[in-house]
Amino acid sequence: MPHLSVEYSAGLEDRACLRTLCEALHGAMVGAGIFPLAGIRVRAHRADIAIVADGLSENDFLAMTLTVGAGRTTDALRKAGDALFAAAQAALAPVLATPHFALSLEIRVSDPALSWKDTPIHDRLSQKATLSQKD
Fold this sequence. Notes:
Elements (H helix, E strand, L loop, with lengths): L1 E8 L8 H15 L8 E7 L12 E10 L4 H18 L1 H4 L4 E10 L9 H15 L1
Parallel strand pairs: 1-2, 3-4
Antiparallel strand pairs: 1-3
């Protein structure tokens, strides 16, 4: 589990390519080297109703929450977070250049005793990696 949830205000769809952003975020997660590929999820959800800061209609936000399983050091997570945030800043540079945008990232560590999973994707990708190593 490294699951990245991206919540954004509806107006951002007219100001940025969210597909490109999500692809950049996925690439940053893969590039961090601390997350299993089979566990990576990047999903974006539009907030149809959002009042941002002083309530101006041109205000937009994008809030990222990365939930990860336990076992990684704070330093490793900080480096991954830095890479994710930098990827978001690059993809959203034109929007960040305006005074009407807020960008955030929070990393949460999930308690394994309170987390259930049934993920055949892990098995498929593990078998694929094993076959590649034998070639």
